[in-house]
Fold this sequence. Notes:
DNA_Rep/Repair_Clamp_Loader
Amino acid sequence: MDWPNHTAARREWREAAAGARMHHGWILAGKAGLGKHDFALQAARELVSEEAVPQPIGEHPDIHMLTYGPKDDKAARAAAEGKDYERARSIRIGQIRAMQQRLNTRPSVGSRRVIIINPADDMERPASNALLKSLEEPPQGTFFLLVTHRASGLLPTIRSRCRILRFPDMDDETIARHLGAGSNAAIALAGGSLGAARKFMEMKLEPIAKVMQQLAAQGDPTLALRAQLISEIGARPSRERIQSILDLARTTLAQSIADAPADKRLGIIDAHAALVDLAAKAPTYNFDIGLLVGEIASLLANAGGASEPIHG
């Protein structure tokens, strides 16, 4: 796909690549669903390509992807057998250590290799600390592309050692051209993210969005809307669905601020910040789904009914 929101990032990237010395660490920052993964793969291909060095057409041995690995030994055995397996909720230190061992050898094809970590903001703290050592003293010809949906989730020391490429939101008209008819509700909920709009359509999140909008607008003194939200989400939502629901809750609050009375805006801002924190923790903690959904509902309802900051 040709992502129209990549123009500025692509220009900055290629200007840097044409310079005398390419920076070794890059953070690709922006909301989920803006094509940062696609950009990383294309950028990695450009980096490892060298004149007069034939490049493989398929998977490249000098482009290494780190993402969620198997959850445990049972999942690892299933993965080794080519079966479906349950993934971990974070990128772990063992994955970083294995990558660092690989860096002790020369690249397979040319003189460069690229490590893509996606999403880098879901690294465990020990994994982040281990990666920092490679960023401080990168092997010659090694480049790191850290795909992140929440750059604030990275260690400040990691951010300070990388250049940041920012990926802007997409306008509604552009998203509509990609999604086609029947996408108006998804576009309104997506907050400028084509990927989020697609997920909202695929996961049929419009009924959930309507309950969230009611919670944010009027609160929930009888707890009926909380119960309705739990029912709409279901008893065993996938991790991907929960993450999309958290994104939807944040978008709902962000969109409600403009029309909110002045005495409610601080409560909405406080609830939005709490949802951002909850979304950052959700991939790495084993939440009881009922409690997690209840917390989402409470934050929305408190924002809708509060005239003071929630934690004040």
